[in-house]
Amino acid sequence: MNQTLSAFGDIEARYTLLKSVAGNAAKLGMDYYTRRENLTVIHKENDLQDVVSVADKAVEDYIRCELSKAFPSDGFLGEEGGALDLEARYLWVIDPIDGTSCFVNGLHSWCVSIGLMVDGLPVLGAIADPNHGELFHACRGAGAFVNDTVIRVHAAQHVREGLTGVGTTYRRGKESFLPFLQGLLDEGGMFIRNGSAALMISYVAAGRLIGYYETNLKSWDCLAGLVVLQEAGGIASDFLRNNGLLDGNSLLVACPGVYEQLSDLVGPSLDTDC
Ligand code: IPD
Ligand code: CA
Ligand code: CA
Known about the structure:
Blueprint: H1 3-6, H2 11-34, E1 41-43, E2 51-53, H3 54-70, E3 75-78, E4 82-84, E5 90-98, H4 100-104, E6 111-118, E7 121-129, E8 134-139, E9 144-146, E10 149-150, E11 163-167, H5 177-186, E12 190-192, H6 197-205, E13 211-217, H7 219-231, E14 235-236, H8 244-247, E15 249-254, H9 256-266
Parallel strand pairs: 3-5, 11-12, 11-13
Antiparallel strand pairs: 1-2, 3-4, 5-6, 6-7, 7-8, 8-9, 9-10, 13-15, 14-15
The protein binds D-MYO-inositol-1-phosphate and calcium ion (2 copies).
One calcium ion (CA) binds at residues 95, 98, 197, 220-221.
């Protein structure tokens, strides 16, 4: 373990457990996914686009149970289970199924995403995609991987050299979305949306996408991905600004060669709370 990492206490044991829990949680999610015709889908707060099923809750329960058995003093922030001891030194940030709309509609781009903050800093991340047999993972200062293979961001210097992931909702922050798309296309770029923020950030880390912009995310959508991205050499806007951990924010991530160009296309909203 390097010196910087030792400042984070018992991080190696947490990293090892994280990878196995994320993988097993993804298997559990897959059990539900293969039986999804029988799942009751609920619309959160009467929002027809915001869906959840019993699978999301069951997967998060499993993750919290396994992590707290090993580390009973750690805190939790999860999309379905809410907050528990936010002041804890070690805070797990969990999205049991990121890409639930895809999940309930039989589309394969969903995953389990688990990040760990230590003293307020994102330190561990794991994103498990059971449909493609991929586990993206990273520990601050120790590199980024998909399964056992090291990953690195794209070498692009201009947006026309690759694909840029995008995402938005009809609810918040969307005002900058169409101008961004227009600017991207004007520059000869191209966009793609797969319905899972955690996977798109991982794809930027793995050099499959050159960047990704979403107008409003929650911390459980992106915290794990941000660790993977940083360790793969990517750049991210300051997601945690203005209480982003609890309130969310817009997010831009990219390989270094196109970050400035994409940031100019997004405009000033990246520096403000949305
Ligand atoms: C959603 C996905 C989607 C993004 C939404 C998120 P969920 O998470 O990450 O890609 O556009 O903003 O809410 O609801 O599937 O966990
Ligand atoms: Ca999510
Ligand atoms: Ca979710």
